[in-house]
Amino acid sequence: MLELALHVLDIVENSARAGATLVKISVVEDLEGDVLSIRIEDNGAGMDEETRARALDPFYTTKKVRRIGLGLPMLKDAAERAGGTFSLDSEPSKGTVVHATFRHTHIDRQPLGDMAGVIAAIMLGNPHMDIVYTHSRGGRSYELDTREIREGLGGVALNEPEVVRLVRENVRESLLEIGAGNTP
Question: Could you give the domains of the chain?
Fold first, then answer.
């Protein structure tokens, strides 16, 4: 994967397959500390200790359509190559937390990429899942909570094209306002 945003999308799709109804995505760009942090937390089925250990093996997957599971191992590798860390915490029936850090200015750090597009894709593919997306950079922050959007829509589905388009534009503009403007 060429962008970190695509790793986020892959992990959230794992969350959807695990039955998550709520996914919290947090991106923190600590410029003074030279750290980019990405944290994804879900309330899905979670994993037992054995499955959690195997989840970082690229030749293990629970997917039926292919026999390899590169998402988590690739994110772990990307974080470590960029001077960062990776952790995977999960408990059955409680959910999963994936946390990766990167040295923000590291030459090998992948670009964050199109987070607005990723949020839109998640909404399109998972209309019953709620997303809380927070992004902070240099002391400024943005938050999107689809539970609030859902409440204001009065029964209109989150994956309606006009809703998705408006959310994508809002995320893109808001990230530019806080200085996190590397989205297309």
Answer: 4-177 (3.30.565.10)
Q: What share of the chain is helix, strand, coil (3-state, %, to 5)?
A: 35, 25, 40
For the cut 70, the answer to whether the pLDDT of residue 43 exceeds it is yes
The closest of 10, 19, 24 to 55, measured between CA atoms, is 10
Torsion of CA 104, 133, 44, 51, to 10 degrees: -10
- What would the 3-class secondary structure string for 77-124 be? HHHHHCCCCEEEEEECCCEEEEEEEEECCCCCCCCCCCHHHHHHHHHH
The band of 67, judged by pLDDT with boundaries at 50, 70 and 90, is very low
The span from the CA of 165 to the CA of 156, in Å, is 14
pTM value is 0.92
Average pLDDT over residues 137-157: 94
Where are the strands (E) in 21-94, listed by range?
22-30, 35-42, 86-91
- When mean pLDDT is compared across 5-9, 77-81, 177-181, the lowest value belongs to 177-181
Of 78, 116, 98, 123, which is closest to residue 38 (Cα–Cα)?
A: 98
